[in-house]
């Protein structure tokens, strides 16, 4: 691993389109567009949305539609999926949808792919129908997508129109060493979900780099680390605002999911000691602080990991506080990675 922070580290956004208590998915989407326009002006590289289903508090069930809305409301920002859950979709449909977006917004669309369903088993069966009883072929589906996007497929029996011959970069997403190995041997960029599954992060990055094979699209390993970032004008304010994220993760741990909750003065009455320990582990690669501490913590993280890009996921109940957090994160990143 690196001993000095790498230079030219990109910084980006992951948006789960969380629905705040007292608001609607329509409010969430308007706030997402507001944030996308904001970060475009701040120098962010890309803005990804994730696929989730059957969750009242998460409105990102249709990434291609949301990507089109965000790309149409911005000018230069790359917009993409972080990710589309490939077991839920036929590769041809993904190629056609993303090909349509890449045709409408050339040079601005990313395709991040995940191997999990992004939902519970009951909803997964509702999404996949009879295919729910067959094992997904994640590597094979990625290869099929690459074929549909290739210009050489113009003589194929099945073609993605639009999509064929377009530059739609593919990223493999994961939270384990298995996905890291696949990304490495396929020579594709790799994005790790350290914002909720930090346990295997370092091992996965090492396995990805150790097994990387140069490809037509990538000559050297490229790692994106997705992290939780809650930045504020003081450590105390950030800690207070961060209780919204802690409540969200508590819902994941306990099964008592709610709409995104406002911050609280103390979490003590909301979680048990065991739940607190579990949540704190899930958030162990999170950065919740004022600007100065954020700068030193990110410098250490970048020096330790040598990642190429940081993708910030910021769950805040107040939209203005969320905009401010991304301002501070951009300010720090423009300094530590210059």
From TrEMBL:
GO CC terms of this entry: cytosol
GO molecular-function terms, A-Z: oxidoreductase activity, acting on paired donors, with incorporation or reduction of molecular oxygen
Pfam (any one): Bac_luciferase
Signal peptide: none
Domain of life: Bacteria
Matches recorded under Gene3D superfamilies: Luciferase-like domain (3.20.20.30)
Record domain Luciferase-like: where: 10-240
InterPro entries per record: Bact_Lucif_Oxidored, CmoO-like, Luciferase-like_dom, Luciferase-like_sf
Similarity section: To bacterial alkanal monooxygenase alpha and beta chains.
Entry protein name: Luciferase-like monooxygenase
């Amino acid at each position: 691993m690196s001993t000095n922070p790498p230079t030219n580290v990109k910084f980006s956004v992951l948006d789960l389109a969380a629905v705040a208590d007292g608001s609607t998915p329509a409010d969430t989407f308007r706030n997402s567009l507001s944030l996308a326009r904001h970060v475009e002006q701040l120098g962010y590289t890309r803005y990804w949305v994730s696929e989730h289903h059957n969750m009242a508090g998460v409105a990102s069930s249709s990434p291609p539609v949301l990507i089109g809305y965000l790309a149409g409301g911005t000018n230069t920002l790359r917009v993409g999926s972080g990710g589309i859950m490939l077991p839920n979709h036929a590769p041809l449909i993904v190629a056609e949808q993303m090909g349509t977006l890449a045709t409408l917004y050339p040079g601005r669309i990313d395709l991040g792919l995940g191997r999990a369903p992004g939902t519970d088993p009951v909803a997964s069966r509702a999404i996949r129908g009879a295919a729910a009883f067959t094992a997904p072929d994640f590597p094979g589906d990625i290869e099929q997508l690459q074929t549909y996007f290739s210009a050489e497929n113009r003589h194929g029996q099945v073609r993605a129109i639009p999509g064929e011959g377009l530059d739609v970069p593919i990223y493999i997403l994961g939270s384990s060493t298995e996905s890291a190995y696949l990304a490495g041997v396929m020579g594709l960029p790799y994005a790790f979900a350290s914002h909720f599954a930090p346990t295997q992060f370092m091992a996965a990055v090492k396995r990805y780099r150790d097994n990387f094979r140069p490809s037509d699209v990538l000559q050297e390993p490229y790692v994106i680390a997705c992290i939780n970032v809650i930045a504020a004008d003081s450590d105390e304010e950030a800690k207070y605002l961060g209780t919204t994220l802690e409540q969200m993760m508590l819902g994941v741990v306990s099964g008592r999911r709610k709409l995104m909750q406002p911050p609280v003065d103390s979490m003590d009455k909301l979680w048990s000691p065991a739940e607190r320990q579990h949540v704190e582990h899930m958030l162990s690669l999170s950065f919740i602080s004022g600007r100065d501490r954020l700068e030193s913590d990110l410098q250490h993280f970048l020096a330790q990991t040598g990642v190429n890009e940081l993708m910030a996921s910021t769950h805040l109940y107040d939209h203005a506080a969320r905009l401010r957090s991304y301002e501070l994160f951009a300010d720090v990143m423009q300094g530590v990675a210059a």
